[in-house]
Design a protein that fits this description.
single chain, 650 residues, alpha/beta, 7-stranded mixed β-sheet, 24 strands
């Protein structure tokens, strides 16, 4: 049995398909001793080569197209190939995107739109030439149009070949709609495919129609040609059934491709599926984990062995973990094992944003140097509307501590939530110059209503008038009701802040991004005094030496968010414990100190709580021992840091 698995554009150019790696491993396990021959076609890499040979495209243009899933122009590029009609809705596309895309990128998209049908036909011809029994397409995010176009031509060239679709774009109603509307797709595997896909292959091999009818989640056609969608399996796969992917020759192919000159490759692994936070509090905007939210994680030792085996086999140290959230138990199990491995790993992980510094230090020691913490917003009230389970001050603490530890942070500032107000943003915007030394958001983005999210499923939360996002009409030739089942992103009347506040937010985020490379705020706790050094452009001071016991105590307490009342109580208790006059700790002094520090940009205030925003210098322990030496570009500040206490602000 010859099986071809296809990864079409626009999947990432720097990583193999985890889904196809898993399916390849499962097929080889279920059909041993050569009973099945599996070939993976990396058509995303082929497309990069193909485009580079025919156009003046470089990585910037390609990446712009590949990252445009939410706007839709990446999939429109393959719409002529999908619908088998040259120049498919070019005028409508140009009108729709004319004010949204840079003119250069708009012209590039139209150029690729003209070329895409030829690439699809050449790719399908190469697949058909191998005489496959089954061709499986994975489709996630912006892969639908290209995959459906290729499947159409494969069936045209090799009508007896069976085509199968699977992936996130096939979950739930989407998979049923895809099968119902596109006759080039023989079967759709909905949900997790590790069990269902091998069962489908066995049934096809044996001609067993009864076995086909018993596969959960499968979409097939009955003897009358009608599309039939089986109910999804009620239970998700247990963690022991999650296999190690087989990436075959992907990394050799990447090294030989145009992509190899654009980006370094990375491994892709999964330690878990589902989301333990989402099981309790599904974030209102999140559409991930459509059919199965239940959190399951691999045995930590097995997961570490899986990573190290892949690292040794492919000689790649960059690892992208696809988990939606870190299993907190891994902090004391998986992380120490990775640290002990001796490999200089660079892992990317999604985490919850309430992790503390010591937990981040544990991750960093394990090689997890890049995180996506889901910060999303800095207003506690807006975060509550999202059901995130964190506060604005906790999010700022995460940004500060990541800077201290040396972990890179990626996040977006989301807005447009039903019930939010301008006040939720204005009090944050006013304080953003104090955060210019911390990792800025990649952008400020209006939330999109995603299928499977609470905003999609529960109109009472504020989005009652949903319709398929407008860009889908320029890709698919389908009626509105079919699009409503097929697509993932939905348009709705805008909610939340008005344009004036939005413009202030966007301007503030842009200023933050520009200022970040030249902004620095650090503190060094020398025991008897705390020295702060500042280079942020929005503030005129450069050196502050905290020597007053009250200042020192409050600053240390503000390592974590506190209300003024809690600061008053805890500071007085510490004064008593240390033999200092507790009567000197008054509400007026605490309030005045917080006001002065807010003016100096030393604290972030939100929701009635405060947190200090100065990361610790990298080698603070050394400084405590000898009072000299700073890390990296701080060396010029050594004389200031070791100056006698009591200098005040300079």
């Amino acid at each position: 049995m010859h099986i071809v698995l296809v990864d079409m554009p626009w999947s990432s150019l720097d990583a193999p398909s985890l889904a196809l790696g898993i399916l390849k491993r499962r097929i080889l396990d279920v059909f041993p001793d050569g009973a099945a021959d599996v070939e993976v076609v990396h058509a995303n890499l082929d497309f990069a080569d193909w485009v580079a040979a025919r156009t003046e495209y470089g990585f910037e243009e390609y990446d712009f197209c590949a990252s445009s899933y939410f706007s839709g122009h990446s999939e429109w590029i393959f719409s002529a190939a999908l619908n088998d009609r040259p120049r498919w809705r070019v005028a409508e596309f140009t009108e729709h995107f004319g004010q949204k895309l840079p003119q250069r990128m708009l012209a590039k998209a139209r150029e690729l739109h003209e070329l895409a049908p030829l690439f699809v036909r050449e790719t399908a011809a190469k697949i058909a030439a191998t005489a496959p029994d089954v061709v499986g397409f994975t489709t996630t995010f912006a892969q639908n149009a290209a995959a459906l176009a290729a499947a159409r031509v494969v069936k045209e060239l090799a009508p007896d070949t069976t085509t199968v679709f699977g992936g996130a774009n096939c979950d739930g109603a989407q998979g049923a709609a895809l099968h119902r509307n596109f006759p080039q797709v023989d079967f759709v595997v909905r949900g997790e495919g590790e069990i269902a896909f091998p069962r489908l292959l066995a049934a096809l091999r044996d001609g067993d129609t009864d076995a086909l009818a018993a596969i959960p989640g499968l979409c097939r056609r009955d003897r009358h040609g009608r599309s039939v969608a089986h109910p999804l399996d009620a239970a998700p796969l247990p963690p022991g059934a999650l296999v190690t992917p087989d990436y075959g020759d992907y990394f050799e192919r990447h090294a030989q491709s145009t992509a190899g000159g654009w980006v370094e490759p990375r491994l892709v692994v999964e330690a878990s599926r589902g989301c333990w936070w989402g099981e309790k509090h599904h974030c209102t905007f999140c559409g991930l984990n459509g059919s199965f939210m239940e959190f399951r994680s691999k045995n930590p030792r097995r997961f570490v062995e899986e990573i190290l085996d892949l690292v040794r086999r492919h000689r790649v140290l960059d690892v992208w973990v696809t988990d939606n959230i870190l299993d907190m138990a891994y902090l004391t199990s998986m992380a120490p094992l990775l640290e002990e491995s001796g490999y200089d790993l660079r892992l990317c992980y999604e985490i919850k944003s309430n992790l503390r510094r010591e937990q981040l230090e544990t991750l960093y020691a394990a090689g997890i140097s890049y995180v996506q913490p889901g910060v999303e917003n800095l207003s506690s009230r807006v975060l509550k509307l999202m059901d995130k389970g964190v506060s604005g001050c906790q999010n700022v603490r995460l940004l500060r501590d990541a800077e201290t530890v040396g972990i890179n942070v990626s996040w977006n500032y989301l807005y447009g939530f039903p019930g939010e107000s301008e006040h939720d943003y204005d009090e944050i915007i006013d304080q953003l110059p104090a955060l210019h030394h911390l990792a800025p958001p990649a952008n400020s983005t209006r939330l999109k209503v995603e299928r499977f999210s609470p905003y999609f499923d529960r109109p009472e939360l504020g989005f009652g008038e949903l319709r398929p996002a407008s860009h889908y009409h320029h890709i698919y030739d389908l009626p509105e009701d079919e699009l409503a089942d097929l697509v993932y992103i939905f348009d709705a009347p805008h909610q939340g802040i008005a344009d004036g506040c939005l413009n202030r937010l966007r301007t503030a985020v842009a200023d933050w991004t520009r200022s970040y490379p030249r902004s620095r705020l650090t503190h060094c706790d020398l025991g008897g005094h705390i020295v702060l050094v500042d280079t942020r452009p929005g503030f005129s001071w450069h050196l502050l030496d905290l020597t007053d016991p009250l200042d020192i105590t409050v600053f240390r307490l503000l390592d974590h968010p506190h209300s003024p009342a809690a600061l008053l109580r805890k500071t007085a208790a510490r004064f008593t414990d240390e033999g200092l006059p507790a009567e000197e700790v008054t509400s007026e002094r605490i309030t005045g100190l917080l006001a002065r520090w807010r003016a100096l940009g030393l604290v972030f205030a939100e929701g009635g709580h405060y947190v200090q925003v100065a990361p610790a210098v990298a080698n603070q322990d050394l400084l405590r021992l000898d009072g000299a030496g700073l890390h990296g570009h701080d060396t010029a500040l050594v004389p200031a840091l070791v100056a006698p206490a009591g200098e005040g602000v300079r």
